[in-house]
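Marked as duplicate of an earlier ticket. Keeping the data here for the record.
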Amino acid sequence: MKRKSTYRKNSVSVTIEGFFVIKQPHRKPLVTGANHLTNKGLNGIINLIGDSYADKQYNYVGTAWAYIISFGDDTVTPTTATMEYLASPVSYFPDAGADVIKTKEADGQYRCVWKSQWFADHFSEDKVIGEVALHINAWRDTGDLTPPIQAYTNYPILYFDAKIVSRVSVADGDFSIYEVNHAKSLTIEYWMRLKMADT
C-alpha cells in the first residue's frame, strides 16, 4: 500500500508582495500593480537565505547596503526574468535616498521600503515614467555564494552590480503613464512585504 505524504500538510508558504509608489507634491500617489522579480532578484533572495561563512575574520554586510531606484520612459517592453537594465532609462541617479525601512507588521509578516528622491528642477523639462526598477547590491549568481560586500577592518569593498532586481511597467499593465512635473520633487518608493501562511 502506498503511503500518503504529509509533507504539504506540515509545510508553510511565504508570499512575496512588491509594488512601487510614485509621488509628487499636491498629487495623489500612484501605487503600481504587483512587481516582477527578475532572476537577479530571486537569486539575491535565495543566496541571502542560503549563504553562510564560518570564519570570523570577515564582517559581511547585507544586500541592502547599496541600492538605487531608477525610471525610464519605455511603454512597450514587458518585464522578463532575464532583464538586467531599463529598456529606455531616463534617470539612474536620484538626488537622495534613505536607509531601508524594515518593519514587523504582524507575526509572520514583515515589510521593507526603499526610497529615492529627485529634487525639484533636477530635470530641465517634464518627463514621462513608463517603467520603474529597483537595483540592489545583489549576489552575482547562485554559484557564487560570496557576499556582495566584504568589510576588512571596517573598510567596505563594494561589488555593486547595478542590474534590475524588480521592475514594473506600463507594458506589463502595472500602471498608466505617469507625467513628471520637473518643477516639483519626485519620490519613488519600493515596498516589499513577506507573509507567511499555512498551506
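See parent ticket for discussion. The first strand starts at residue 12 and ends at 23.
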